[in-house]
Amino acid sequence: MQVEPVAAMKTIMSISRAAAPLLSALLLATTAHPALAQVQPETNTRPMAVPITPSVPDPQDVPYPGTIALEIDASDVTTGAFRVTETIPVADGASKITLLFPEWLPGNHGPRGTLAELTDVRFFANGQPLKWTRDPVEVFAFHVELPAGTKEVVARFVHTSPLRESEGRIVMTREMLNLQWEKMSLYPAGHYVRQIKVRPTVTFPQGWTAYTALDGKSAPDAKTGANRVSWDVTDYETLVDSPIFAGLYAQRFDLGKNVYLSTVADKPELLAIKPENLQTYRNLVDEALAAFGAKHFDHYDLLLAMTDRMGGIGLEHHRSSENQYEPRTLVDWEKGDWDRNVISHEFAHSWDGKFRRPAKLWTPDYRQPMQDNLLWVYEGQTQFWGYVLAARAGTQSKDMVLANFANWAGSFTQYPGREWRSVEDTTHDPVFAARKAKPFPSLARNEEYYTEGALVWLEADQIIRDGTGGKKGLDDFAKAFFGIRDGDWGVVPYEPTFSK
Ligand SMILES: [Zn+2]
User: Fold this and answer.
1) What's the CA-to-centroid distance between 8 and ligand 1, angstroms?
2) In whole angstroms, what is the distance from residue 246 CA to residue 217 CA?
3) What mean pLDDT value characterizes the chain?
4) Of 20, 121, 188, 492, which has fewest CB within 10 angstroms of its CB?
5) Could you tell me the pLDDT band of residue 71, with boundaries at 50, 70 and 90?
6) Does residue 28 register a pLDDT over 80?
7) All residues with CB under 5 Å from ion ligand 1
8) How many angstroms does the Cα of residue 373 sit away from the middle of ligand 1?
9) How far apart, in whole angstroms, are the C-alpha atoms of residue 469 and residue 301?
């Protein structure tokens, strides 16, 4: 993901003002109070813990039998509701099935699954409604009882996407939508998600164009005239990694090397980018390949929404990324300089984060918790490359990029929170803080593994340059670390080793 540049700037500006009075208040608060000892008498009734019995099977690296048919109606731009019918084959003789809603989401680095927006959930077999219960410990799990001889379960539900910002990120407007499969599908527990096969089908509003990294898109339905398309059977991991941007005003720019800038906009005139500015995105592809060496996609879509109506996003995937610019950022090139970092950041993630991933951040499904300690590599070095590549390519000016690094370096000299909390410890913020505003951010710290992480890698670059007499720098590290196994778009995990 990416940190929102404007919000980061505001946080930084509040630091020095906030620090002084807060520290005084904390010192006063340490004044001792007399202890008031009080224990419960043994005559009080005292309950004992009820043991928790796990009831959701752990994932195994074995194929799930059959192919799930996932059919989503995304044509209702009035309510923003996505209506889902999912047909799930079941193993012979099964008396129950446990279906999971994705909780720990890749790129979110935390348990951000939008379970509260999953509504009107019903299960059927042979046309008859089935009894289901939600697991009281793992509330993202649905246990469904199956009558004897059940061959498949049909799940019907509605993803009620937010209609206003206070409810969450708006993903559908009258001009565009952002369909993320993990928000509108269930998957069977007990299997690695790469072992679950799915055939996806979506109905879009008439006249809209859809972009995604999924392969094998069918033509719209000739019989009914509906804008209903499907893609080749894929695995659930690739599906979740391949979101859709679709819109009424859409244009796809070929950047070369099988990379595309696939755009949707609030209005058609927002896509009128000048040729010399479009060229900077072609430069970006060339610069990234030059820095990282091997590429880890067969094709890649930079999905980009020019909007202030749909919610903002910067989210990485192997073969695509989800990006949002302010509406006029492509046409008012100079004024939009500050806004254009997200694309180079998310593109760099194809190498750093998706292909090379910390071993404990990779999980076999979306139920196992992620351990975020190495986000200062995954996000910190991506923050570094996102800015450096933007300057080399010209998608952002060199002045803008240098100003950002200077801004971070200056601000961290004023951060009292750096005295108690390491950059590594801030990697756990996505799990418990969820980017909610904090009362004293300079003391609490935020997700600073992005910006302070980038400064760590700037220093690493300087150390390499000093140690090699200027012959090598972080580019050489990047080629050695990310530039392996050309064409492989799997995941090569890593773990830290420390020598004394
Ligand atoms: Zn990121």
Assistant:
1) 14
2) 14
3) 93
4) 20
5) very high
6) no
7) 1, 379
8) 15
9) 39
Question: Distance, CA 448 to ligand 1 centroid (Å)?
Answer: 12
CA of 58 to the centre of ligand 1 (A): 29
> What residue ranges in 340-420 does DSSP mark as E strands?
356-358
| Cα of 356 from ligand 1 centre, angstroms | 13
Distance (Å) from CA 105 to ligand 1 centroid: 13
pLDDT digits (tens, 9 = 90+) for 346-389: 999 999 999 999 999 999 999 999 999 999 999 999 999 999 99
CA dihedral 211, 213, 214, 215 (to 10 degrees): 100
Q: How far is the CA of 454 from the centre of ligand 1 (A)?
A: 11
Residue 431 Cα to ligand 1 middle (Å): 15
Which residue matches tokens 């949707």? 264
The Å distance, Cα 389 to ligand 1 centre, comes to 14
What average pLDDT does this structure show over 239-261?
Answer: 98
The encoded tokens of residue 246 equal 């679709």
- Supply the pLDDT for residue 499: 65
Cα separation, 334 vs 412, whole angstroms: 28
pLDDT at residue 217 is higher than 90: yes
- Does the pTM surpass 0.90? The reply is yes
- The CA angle 41-43-45, to the nearest 5 degrees, is 100
User: Residue 1: what pLDDT?
Assistant: 81
- Ligand 1 centroid–CA 348 distance in Å is 9
Dist CA 157 CA 123 (whole Å): 9
pLDDT digits (tens, 9 = 90+) for 283-320: 999 999 999 999 999 999 999 999 999 999 999 999 99
Residue with tokens 């404990």: 360
Dist. CA 379 → ligand 1 center (Å): 5
Q: What is the DSSP string of 197-215?
A: EEEEEEEEPTT-EEE-S-S
Between CA 56 and CA 367 the distance in angstroms is 10
**pLDDT confidence bin for 500, thresholds 50/70/90:** low
Where are the extended beta strands (E) located within 338-463?
356-358
Contact 202, 243 (CB under 8 A): no
- Own/partner pairs for 121-125, CB < 8 Å, 24+ apart? 121/155, 121/156, 121/157, 122/155, 122/156, 122/157, 123/153, 123/154, 123/155, 123/156, 124/153, 124/154, 124/156, 125/150, 125/151, 125/152, 125/153, 125/154
392 Cα: distance to centroid of ligand 1 (angstroms): 19
